[in-house]
Description:
Layout: E1 5-10, E2 16-18, H1 23-28, E3 44-48, E4 57-60, E5 63-66, H2 68-76, E6 81-89, E7 95-105, E8 108-109, E9 118-122, E10 129-135, H3 140-143, E11 148-151, E12 158-160, H4 161-169, E13 174-177
Parallel strand pairs: 3-6, 8-11
Antiparallel strand pairs: 1-12, 1-13, 2-3, 4-5, 5-7, 6-7, 9-10, 11-12
Amino acid sequence: MSSPFWYLSPGKEVPHDITHPDRAQxxxxxxxxxxxxxxxxxxxxxxxxxQLELPDLFATGSKRVISQRLRALIExxxxxxxxxxxxxxxxxGSVLSETFSVLHPLERIDCxxxxxxxxxxYGSGANxxxxxxxxxxxxxxxxxDRAVFRPQRYSAIFASEEFRETALREALDIKFYPxxxxxxxxxxxx
Length: 190
């Protein structure tokens, strides 16, 4: 049985650093919030630790850095997000790419059924944040027809089956994992 929603995961690990002058600005990005940041976002620099071909999606902490190809797909699906530009340099400082950006969703969806999900959390009461899920159950009616979304209280980004199929057809270098941890064709279990 196929999952209707999938973890949107990096294509591969990209060893990197945020360049020294940009670290404070980078850390100040509240990627859990939904406030638009583009008007005050400077182009920040990510320096690779080794030369490699970049995937269409890689992670730096809880932030997701995406290629122009993945951005175009996300835009075709009319995702409520903004794209914060980054410059990527090789370890010697030479510019590798200026076409990547941080994907910043502009909404958090209250779509997790916490009563039937099994998870570890930070904090208690109404202010908790999920650390990890052993069983994740969505409320599909809350997600609606969103192709890419970030739930409330959890930093992962998810995609619909339609988005996943399109990304696989277009051979984007990203991975998809089912939220229940079972392996999917082409995706190892989490």
